Amino acid sequence: MKRNTPIAAWPCNNPDELYKAISFGDADALAKELAVSTAQVTAWRTGQDPVPKAVFLWLTLRNSKKLGPQFGPFRGFELCDRGDALVCPDTGIRMNHAEVYRLPDYRRAQRLVEQQAELIERLMKERNFYRKNCHQQARFGMLLNQVFQPDID
Q: Is residue 96 within 8 Å of residue 89, measured between CB atoms?
């Protein structure tokens, strides 16, 4: 019986992933990328030879649109279908390629927001101080007016 699906000599939990990794694309381009002959790629695709695990892992990583654990805090981010934006897995927020050039402006705007918030807080403290001081001066003035009656002519 002749095989027509790829096989693996290592424990492969998901044969669909193996099939997807090795069976699509131009065989000549794939052979050139992997530095093997086109006949070898054909043998892997038809199941005549088992697909090496390193080849499977390389092709899976190359075809993946999701960033892996080696990307630290960006792990799990996905490239959108059009390929022009990264999508955050938690929030679904997209960051387009064009926005990368605007990052300095975003950082400057964030810094300005923080400075404005600090300025507003400082101005509110000063306002409260002067308001309190004004009420205190008015009370002292009333006490002095009671002690020393002003001359009203």
A: no
Q: What is the pLDDT of residues 25-70, one digit of tens each?
A: 888 998 998 899 999 999 988 888 888 888 888 888 888 888 888 8
Nearest to 27 by CA among 51, 43, 49: 43
* Rounded Cα gap, residues 146 and 84, in angstroms: 78
Task: Count other Cβ atoms within 10 Å, centred on residue 148.
Answer: 8
Helix locations, the chain, DSSP H: 15-23, 27-34, 38-46, 53-63, 97-100, 103-147
Radius of gyration of the chain (CA): 35
Note whether 80 and 87 are within 8 A (CB).
yes
Residues 124 and 131: their CA atoms lie apart, in Å, by 10
